[in-house]
Amino acid sequence: MDAMGILLTFAGILVHDHWKSYFAYAAVHVLCNAHHLRELQGVVDRDANKLALRLMKLLTLSWHFCKKYKAAGLTQMPGAIQLRIETIYDQILQRALTKETAYMEKQRQVLGRKKVRNTKAYNLFKRLIEFKVETLRFMSDFSIPFDNNGSERDARMAKLKQKISGCFRSEDGGTMFTRIRSYLSSAKKQGLNIFQALLKAVRNYNNTPLLGAE
């Protein structure tokens, strides 16, 4: 990641999946809630945990509220509603963590051990408590996405091409592919017409900025 030369100097908002290595960089960290929803769904499927299901519903409802308020012209969720959501978030997670702690203690006694391994649910609930700010940051700033799916979609096309073709025939071909995909993705995110963006790139002979220049 250092060799890429991006994250070393990046000082913006970094939305990621909680890989510990990312926290070494001096950025505003936001955790991807699509990953959280998948992990919570795993807890529901494995343990039939109703508290995990409640937390899933709370997160998705919170994001629904954010989109509604953003469409109304707001830049963040109203303070009273945000506080209420955070309170419910805390209550659910504290109950869930207490329940998992009791379960692990019971397992420890049954097995006659000094200590048992933490359950996956316990580790998830504890992480969501410790990183509450990074998890719910999307409510306090509507420019922050709920997840990093946009970035993952950008990378998915390269993996799909690799899966179908096996590889790129040359390094130059791979470089050209990623440059074109990156340019089109940026144009789309800026609300530009893809055809016009391509036309502008083809006609650009004086090396002027292509995106956000007008």
Fold and architecture overview:
- By secondary structure, the chain is mainly α.
- Helix content is 64%, strand content 4%.
- A two-stranded parallel ribbon has the order 1-2.
- Helix 1 runs antiparallel to helix 2, helix 2 runs antiparallel to helix 3 and helix 3 packs antiparallel against helix 4.
- The longest helix has 33 residues.
- The protein is globular, with a radius of gyration of 22 Å.
- It starts with 12 loop residues before the first strand and ends in an 11-residue tail after the last helix.
Task: Provide the spatial order of strands within the biggest beta sheet.
Answer: 1-2
> What portion of residues is helical?
55-70%
Distance N to C terminus: 33 Å
Contiguous uncertain segments of 5+ residues: none
Give the H and E element order: EEHHHHHHHH
Q: What is the CA-atom radius of gyration, in angstroms?
A: 22 Å
Keywords:
mainly alpha, two-stranded parallel sheet, 8 helices, globular
SSE order and pairing:
Blueprint: E1 13-16, E2 28-31, H1 33-47, H2 50-71, H3 79-111, H4 120-130, H5 132-140, H6 149-165, H7 171-189, H8 194-203
Helix pairs in contact: 1-2, 2-3, 3-4
Summarize the structure in short:
With 214 residues, the protein is mainly alpha-helical.
